[in-house]
Automatic annotation (TrEMBL):
It comes from Aegilops tauschii subsp. strangulata. Residues 58-118 are annotated as: Leucine repeat I (LRI). This is Uncharacterized protein. It comes from the Eukaryota. Residues 356-430 are annotated as: SAW. Keywords: Transcription, Transcription regulation. Belongs to the GRAS family. InterPro entries: TF_GRAS (IPR005202). A motif (VHIID) lies at residues 168-172. The lineage of its organism: Eukaryota, Viridiplantae, Streptophyta, Embryophyta, Tracheophyta. The keyword Transcription applies.
Length: 430
């Protein structure tokens, strides 16, 4: 991509050149969230692409689904008719359906051109500056409660599991900027009788490293500074390897410490048996179980993009990200440059990867909670229900956001949804 710094939906010469080579034009239900959760849990292989939606958004959705079918069938004449029509209907500064549609179209074009991986890498790495990417990620964090929900629910479960312990070790897969641990350190500082000693092992990921503009030592320095202000004895240990490369020797677990292991929106990036016989997803869970942690926290998007056929994966992605884009819609004006940048750099790369890539190149491999539950129980974990205090804390958080955000609890598992659709699920295990 040379000097280009980002994929822009309005200016995609490289994609258009690719398309020219391969064939012409470049290409609500009213049920409560709890009922929706029941539908998700009893699952859900229903045809999702026959839903009739009224108006322009409904037509756009049907045309996107038709285009996906044509791309899958490599029906070039149909694609050549539909892609130009779709390009007239979508816009990165339009309504939520038009914005999402812009990125979905690029994903379909990239899939047809078998260029999904290069585009995904461009969306991940050809960013303007790392400091800008950091600001986009922070904006997404503030714009919607999904990350805060995950951080607060996991922290609540960890705080309860290590109550009364003098030495606490937290292993965080995909520590990102380390923001999750600031409020936990502050809370532990107020413990009656004095704070415990806290050790955090941070496992990195390449996107966060780029956004930070440096290694995990930046996270360690920041958390050490916070811990010092709070007078919490603290140690940081960095593991600068991908999650699927982690071995027991990386983790430096000390006998006698209370161990907590955290997976916040990260485990779906670790490939499973659908990608390779190594099945690192289950290997990592077995490794974690062998360490006998007091608690394992899991926060994941409620989305099935791992092993389902492309048609169903596409339909689920369309429905899921429609809800995400709708939920962000109230935050800033539609033509706001910061908002467009945030959606482009933080959401579009996920969407393109899910739609365009296959095999090891498809790294966004989400599973619904029922699948995660099966994996965790298979290696010997048992549910550790989240408490009413955690539930109440999240409800207080949501008062600052749209009333369309809904929280539901089922068997000690928390679901955060937009309107009736569950989007993020938080659970704890031991």
């Amino acid at each position: 991509h040379g000097a280009s710094t980002a994929i822009s939906i309005d200016h995609l010469p490289s994609l258009k050149e690719i398309c020219a080579k391969i064939g012409g034009a470049c290409a609500d239900t009213e049920s409560a969230l709890a009922t929706a959760i029941s539908d998700e849990l009893t699952h859900e292989n229903k045809e999702q692409d026959e839903v009739l939606v009224e108006g322009q958004d409904g037509y756009l959705k049907k045309l996107l689904i038709s285009c996906a079918r044509a791309v899958e069938a490599k029906d070039m004449s149909a694609v050549d008719m539909m892609v130009p029509e779709l390009r007239k209907m979508v816009s990165v500064s339009g309504d939520p359906h038009q914005r999402l549609g812009a990125y979905i179209v690029e994903g379909l074009v990239a899939r047809l051109a078998s260029s999904g991986h290069s585009i995904y890498k461009a969306l991940k790495c050809k960013e303007p500056r790392s400091s800008d990417l950091m600001s986009y990620m922070h904006f997404l964090y503030e714009a919607c409660p999904y990350f805060k929900f995950g951080y607060m629910s996991a922290n609540g479960a960890i705080a309860e599991a290590v109550k009364g312990e003098d030495m606490i070790h937290i292993i965080d897969f995909g520590i990102s900027q380390g923001a999750q641990w600031v409020p936990l350190l502050q809370a532990l500082a107020t413990r009656p009788g004095g704070p415990p000693t806290v050790r955090i092992t941070g496992i990195d990921d390449s996107l966060s490293a780029y956004a930070r503009g440096g290694g995990l030592d930046l996270v360690g320095r920041r958390l050490s500074h916070i811990a010092g202000l709070c007078k919490v004895p603290f140690e940081f240990h960095s593991v600068a390897v991908a999650g699927d490369e982690v071995k027991e020797g990386h983790l430096m677990v000390i006998p006698g410490e209370a161990l907590a292991v955290n997976f916040t929106l990260e485990l779906h990036h670790i490939p499973d048996e659908a990608v390779s016989t190594a099945n690192h997803r289950d290997r990592i869970l077995r490794l974690v179980k062998s360490l006998s942690p007091k608690v394992v926290t899991l926060v994941e998007q409620e989305l099935n993009t791992n092993t389902v056929p492309f048609k169903q994966r596409f339909a689920e992605t369309l429905d899921y990200y429609t809800a995400i884009f709708e939920s962000i819609d109230l935050t800033l004006p539609r033509d706001d440059r910061e908002r467009i940048n945030m959606e482009q750099h933080c959401l579009a790369r996920e969407i393109v990867n899910i739609v365009a890539c296959e095999g090891a190149e498809r790294v966004e491999r989400h599973e619904v909670f029922g699948k995660w539950k099966g994996r965790l129980m298979m290696v010997g974990f048992r549910p550790c229900p989240l408490s009413s205090l955690v539930n109440a804390t999240i409800r207080t958080l949501l008062q600052s956001y749209s009333a369309n955000y809904q929280l539901a609890e089922r068997d000690g598992v928390l679901y955060l949804g937009w309107k009736n659709k569950p989007l993020v699920v938080s659970s704890a295990w031991h």
